Amino acid sequence: MREVVCKAIDAVEFSFYNDEEIHAISVKHITSPVLFDNLRNAVPGGLYDGALGPLDKFSSCITCGQQPINCPGHCGHINLMLPVYNPLVYKNVLKIYRSVCIYCHNFKMHKNRVTLFSDKLELISQGRMVEAMNVVVKKVENEGDNMEEIIQGGSFSTGLDEEMGEDGSSYRGETGDEDVAAGKRHFTASQIDATKEVISQFMSSMPPRKCENCLAHVPAIRNEGVGKLFQLPLPKGSLASNIMRGLKSVINIASGNDDTERAKDEDVEMEENDISENAIEEIDEKKIDRKMRETDQADVRNQTKFLTPSEVKEHLRLTWENEERICSLIWGAQEAYGLLTKSKKDVCGSDMFFLQTILVTPNRFRPPNRMDDQILEHPQNIFYSRVIQANISLTESSRGAKGDLNFSKATALWLNLQNAVNALLDSTTAIGSKADAGGNGVRQLLEKKEGLFRMNMMGKRVNFACRSVISPDPYIAVNEIGIPPYFATRLTYPERVTPWNVQQLRDAVENGPSTHPGATHVEDEDGKLTNLASLPSYKRAAIAKTLLSASGLSGANVSRGADASSDVPRSGGKTVYRHLRSGDILLVNRQPTLHKPGVMAHKARVLKGEKTLRMHYANCSTYNADFDGDEMNVHFPQDELGRSEGYNIVNADEQFVVPTSGDPIRGLIQDHVVGAVLLTKRDTFLTREEYMQIVYAAVVSSTSPTLAKKKSALGMIERDRPIKTLPPAIQKPKQLWTGKQVMTTVFNYITHGSPPFSMSAGIKTPKEYWGLNSGENIVLLQDNELICGVIDKAQFGKYGIVHAFQELYGCAGAGKLLSVFSRLFTNYLQMHGFTCGIGDLLLVPKAEKERRHKLRKADKLGDSVHAKFIGDPETQADIDVERVKDQVEKILRAKGEPASNRLDRMMSGALNGVTSEVNNAMFPKGLMKAFPGNWFTMMTVTGAKGGLVNFTQISSLLGQQELEGKRVPRMVSGKTLPCFSPWDTGARAGGFIGDRFLSGLRPQEYYFHCMAGRDGLVDTAVKTSRSGYLQRCLVKNLEGLKIHYDYTVRDSDGSIVQFKYGEDGIDVLKTSYLTKFELLADNQSLVSRRLGKDEMQTERSKQKDTSSQSKETEVEEDMALGGVSPAFNQKVEDFLKGLPKKELKRLNLRKSRQKDDFKFMMQLKFITSLAPPGEPVGVLAAQSVGEPSTQMTLNTFHFAGRGEMNVTLGIPRLREILMTASENISTPIMTCPLRSHLTKEDGERLAMTMRRLRLVDLIETVDVGEIPFSVQQGIPKRVYKIRIKLYSPKRFPPGMNLTLKECETILRDSFIPRLEKEVKAATRGHSKQDAIGFVPLRDLGEGAGESGAGVDDDGVSKASKKGKEVDEGEQAEDEEEDEGDEEGADAEKRKSQGTDERGYADEEDDDEKAIAKDLLQEDELTREEEVEEEEDGAGGGKANDNNGSGDQQANTEEGITPMKLKKLKTPKRANDNMLQMDGSTFEMQFTSSQQTNLVLMPELVEKVAKQVSVRYVKGIDKCSVIETKDKKNPDGPPLYALQTDGVNLEGFWALHDDLDVNNLTTNNIATILRVYGVEAARQTIMSEVLSVFGSYGIGVNPRHLSLISDFMTCQGGYRPCNRLGIYSSPSPFLKMSYETATTFLMDATLKRQRDNLSSPSARIVMGRVVESGTGSFELLQNIDAFIDGKA
């Protein structure tokens, strides 16, 4: 290396610049808003002043005198006349000021409690977490007039007073100065979490009105935007109390401008200013008065006052002086305890919340844009200019005014200055014209994808890279990449000239930049570059001769012998920037890079005449690439370290196994699989010429030939290994070789010099295709000889031939085997040929007849399924189709979506059985061409291309079409398409397609098929961004987790997450064959050779001879760094004990010594399988969850039926578990098995007691009649008559013992009062002359989400509104009630904003989470009110005061509480005249004033009937019995369990005699955490994520999920992997590079945090190597010995 790093950034500290520091940094005071004069020269004192740096490339810098390319730029500053708020921390100012008493300038909390909070924070900062938890701060429950007694009584005692000193600081003193000096002290995630919780508790415990120290009543504060604070008037009683106590808020504010000659040191005493709100908005263009008008007796007037920044600043300054300890702990805890390395204490204090000097960035960051003769102003200059102009206006007004200063106008100019500063720092906080400037403020330049952190710091632009379309090439090696000459001549590598490469580099220099292999530049010892493009050939030749000249290697006697290095001086030589050439290592990447093998290193092969990148087929699965126009990126490493890692670690051959599941991901595909099957199947014979040709073509390119010079002039081509052919399998009448012999020849060639291998494996092709007794169903290899079996797709997958080869011979051997196979099968296909015809798709006549017969039965299957759905027997002859249709319509309209889902499941189950029956009859015996002569069948069944589904859709039928996991939905009319009859029971009407592609589709079937295809396309487009954001959240949260040298997994702050990675320490990449003892025993010589067992055998034998068996055990345990896992040792013992004698003899394991050798070998295998230290297991775990989630985008709602419950699966469920850690999940499920002695009928009985039975489930019909005009007691009324007919008691749900008398009670006591409330709510606000004046309470909301409508057989009135619309209406009414007089449309708008999809961007996703959190809080409040109303019988209420309703519209952010509502008393029992009962029919009537609007009574009756519960268990809606399998005995009889829609653990605990509550499970992780603890929650996270992936057949190694669950629960809670969870990270750079960069930046700056650059993101931001992988250690070299020639 020519450059040696002598300095590096070790840590970054965050703090605010004070005015003195800004003046020290600045080189120019900016005073003019004008940029250029008339001659386009920069105006002195303007934003483009030459002192800030040169503006063009021709001028030099005035300040430093350097050229523009070397000048770093210089800052200027703007002095503001008056202080303004910093808009980036304005929320903190507001929060602090509301907590401060403006009379005594302390926090409103009593000093004793403040001291306890300070002690707690100090203990946390010292890492004494347990002691901090023991400090308990008691709350003052009521804020009353007896505050003096509470304080004097000492109610704040915590029992720790005897340990406290006089100053209340008993816990200070142990700061660990020696650790601070060593730079080792830093906050951990646990400390940050605890600190956040204590600060939150401190701020929330602050008394809202009354100060606990001086007992003053503190005025409330109202905020308007950024920069406007108003002090609200005190109530009369509070004001009188303050006056009697003599309390008065008086502060001293220094006035003047330091930048002018009129600066003064005197203080002007000024009380709080008394102005009206309207005066603030008026901006007068006239000159303002000389000074502000002083107002006296402001407190006595008790009016709304505007608080200027100067006043707020002075209040906070005085508070900081009085509360220095707590303030330094909250805003600067690390500084307070010396964790920062500043030599002097930062004395900013409260001044950091305000700005009076603004730093101006250098010119090079605000360059002017020139277009023709015009100069376009940089957007940032606009903001600076407005700040300067506003400052000048305020300064001139104060100087030039005569007489007193008009305070309102001065304040307007002050606010104008504040608004200009707001626009500069955060354009979203500016109002008026400042907000319409069109530019971005500082905050906008930092945040989002295009911001400074994510665009410029985390994502770097690179040179030495190329990008092009990829094309396939089966003849290059699998770890090679074909490079076109266009790229090869433009990508260069700086290679140092040495005696060993000088001739090659001379040739490159002579060739120049145009001829490959050539060079583009030569760099001499002084760093001077010579461009070869502009030099003629003779000059290039001259330069080539001087590559080892005296200047580089003066006087060197260059020798080519072994001692050449000792003769060569160690001074630096010349460097040649040579072309990329074959054999160079390249990093290849395809976006999106979703997992670790998404970036692999390939060896370059320059292919003349090519225009695109050439890649082997085996890499398609790794990159998820195809050749339909995909583009890939190629990067050329520029140093030897990068090249070395590329050759040895990132090499494509080393990425054979994917970290997600530990399964192979690289393998041959498509035509290569067909070629393998054709070559290795029986009856494949080759002549001598064919045999020799394909073997030679396969192996000839695997090694590079060398020309060996002999004594004679002739030479011969030598290779490192010979090709040994086999004798023919058939001698007469003609010598023939089999395809299996070709494979044996290849195996012998590749394994030359190593022992042969043996194995057996299954195949993918079903047994019936080759024949059950054909012998081809198992691949058997013995000593490299392929004895039987066909090589198909399975041999390129898990436990196949290539996978076993990789395990036994290494990744390089597996890569060579794939390359040879590729050429072998390609050549054989070219020799044999392969094609498909229409004959491959045809069926025999018998099969065609059987197909039509079975499909004809399917046409009538829908009638029987629909009859079963309505409860009729399935006898086909007795089905009345029209009656079935009517009953289906009634049930679907009444029960809605749940009933529709149940019908879909019944129909899909029946029709899927028909589809399977048809396909099983057709394949493979029904085809006209039999396998293996049927090429289409060969492709599908061997795994080469497509599958059986594709074949059946072409030749058999398409089957049931599904949209989001359901059948084709019906319209309101009951039709799926207009051509079908309403409520058609046929399978075809529901989307079942009996047609096939071979004979064509009818229009209806074609339309259904297009619907399903479009659904998949839309789902892909919508869900892709969701899965990407999920992976990004996981990666950013887990990126710091890595394995340390003690095999623990720790975060970047050193916090232990796992004591052993994955609980056993095994690397996921090495887990596949760890317990495949039979293969390892069958190839002991190979395994021993690879593990290095032979080298250790001698030493082990000596130890056995000289020591006892216990000593040997100790040695083995020492080798295993604590011993091999006992579970693994037990598995080895069980394997040896379970082998029969015949197998023991075959595997050479009969003798005890042989068994000991095998055990020793397996111990070595275990040790070498441990995950290496430095492995970034956090990122691997995140990728292993994020990458497979993209495969679920097409099936988000599939497999969503679990019993009768609807379960959220796919990406939405993963987001619930991992990203948001939701407490209230969308579909909570609870499952508990029955006791072993109970039957399914017993389970149904229990389930019936757990289900929620609503009144609507008992209603048969509802008739609603209306009498428009009726005189009641002399008053005209409108009368509604309601007749409800219930089912007969015989049809009531069994097991509930429900009677009509109980139903009557429910109708009287619950239904009628609630219906009355709904009627009043429906009439509220529609008429000003409403006879009923009351305020309705929030709807109880039971049964929300149900659908259906009441049915009116007489046709009087019918309610048929969908459940979704009903729910939205209920939500809208709820929000109208909460918001007072707010319009319902606005409430609907807010509701839709909270529930609709929030788009694809990260920031929109964040907004969705924030809105969802608010909605969850509202839901909690709703549920609490539901419980209260149910206990009281019915809810209702009215306002305490009907006057002043307009005041209730005040913004809740301003501290205005809504009017409280009184609860109505429990309604009295309705009299008999209100409800009349006739058998199962109940009649009632309601009257309303003629002046009220009409009410849709059928809808209200339906709505209330759904809300009223007859029987229910809290939190549970549905309950059903499901079948489960015994894990210990899967083939045994089925077990039964109860499954509920909803969670109520106590409800199941009550049934412990019938339920096995010890095995109770639920998918609500927050509930498990709250009830069973953190370990149960951790296990539930693992099982839930595994079940989500298992539903789609996706395998994820449990070690990844174990790590994620440990990370989410390691702090004792349920930590989400989002912005809320990442807050506890000690690395500010990590948080800033995630999202909301400004928020995290301000938080780190306010708290004076320090980033030790331990997280990967922090190191990337600062340009340092990440401390993981090869960056987790360093190599030291003895330079002196190296120079002396002794190294």
Automatic annotation (TrEMBL):
Coiled-coil positions: none
Keywords: DNA-directed RNA polymerase, Magnesium, Metal-binding, Nucleotidyltransferase, Nucleus, Transcription, Transferase, Zinc
A biological-process GO annotation: nucleolar large rRNA transcription by RNA polymerase I
Annotated segments matching region Disordered: 1090-1115, 1343-1460
Places the protein is found: Nucleus
SMART domains recorded: RPOLA_N
Biased composition (Acidic residues): 1367-1385, 1417-1433
Bias (Basic and acidic residues): 1091-1105, 1386-1401
Entry's EC annotation: 2.7.7.6
One Pfam short name: RNA_pol_Rpb1_4
This protein's GO CC annotations: RNA polymerase I complex
Catalysed reactions, as listed in the record: RNA(n) + a ribonucleoside 5'-triphosphate = RNA(n+1) + diphosphate
InterPro entries in the cross-refs: DNA-dir_RNA_pol1_lsu_C, DNA-dir_RNA_pol1_lsu_N, DNA-dir_RpoC_beta_prime, RNA_pol_asu, RNA_pol_N, RNA_pol_Rpb1_1, RNA_pol_Rpb1_3, RNA_pol_Rpb1_3_sf
CDD domains: RNAP_I_Rpa1_C, RNAP_I_RPA1_N
GO molecular function per UniProt: DNA binding; DNA-directed RNA polymerase activity; metal ion binding
Chain ranges of the RNA polymerase N-terminal domain: 351-680
Stated role: DNA-dependent RNA polymerase catalyzes the transcription of DNA into RNA using the four ribonucleoside triphosphates as substrates.
Family the entry assigns: Belongs to the RNA polymerase beta' chain family.
PANTHER family: DNA-DIRECTED RNA POLYMERASE, DNA-DIRECTED RNA POLYMERASE I SUBUNIT RPA1
UniProt name for this protein: DNA-directed RNA polymerase subunit
Species per Swiss-Prot/TrEMBL record: Marchantia polymorpha
Species classification: Eukaryota, Viridiplantae, Streptophyta, Embryophyta, Marchantiophyta
